[in-house]
Amino acid sequence: MRNIPELIVMLTYADLTVKNAAEIFEQCKNTKAKYWGFKEIPLPLDEMKELFSYMRQCGKLTGLEVVEYTEEKCLAGARMAAACGCEFLMGTAFFDSVSRLCREEGIKYLPFVGRVSGRPSVLEGTVEDMIGQAGAYLEKGAYGIDLLGYRHAEDPAALNRTFVSSVNAPVCLAGSINSYRRLDEVKEAAPWSFTIGSAFFDNRFGGSFADQIDKVCDYMLQPLSGQKAEK
Question: Which letter does DSSP use for residue 143 in this model?
Fold first, then answer.
């Protein structure tokens, strides 16, 4: 039976948390999305903690995605996730110290693979190297992998399919999922989850922020044979 990928709603635009994240969540807390998250900047930590706590009070599962690449900054992001009580930490370049902290705090760690740089982040590297990295990170305690497939220049859909089918762990396809065509490709790859942030703010799925969330959740439940053709 094909896995139905979970939508993770990211209250972010261009890899930065939006300043009115709490207001948007309040408007959308009764939508069908179970997983919610945002980035490590620019909200003050106290606001992050308050919002994540409220999300959990509303029955949501929460994650922080950290777009950093040095050990010092990745560790700082992991400590933020712990302070906020997040269920999972996404992103960061992999470091043993980050993995160890996540294990100690009971956080599920999904690091980046490949060569990731910039903000918004860009992915480079071969799928073979990424699969090899994933295996090594999982052996060292990672829960799953954060794959920035649509930030890669060469045939992202094929990369996503190959990676997900080759890695025996939860994979989140993160970044630049902004059309029904790409939702179809996500369905075909069948990862554990995928993120949408900027596309909701750009109204790429039509309607209010809450309407778009429910449209995407409903669409992912439709069989592959019912695919749309929008770009």
Answer: -
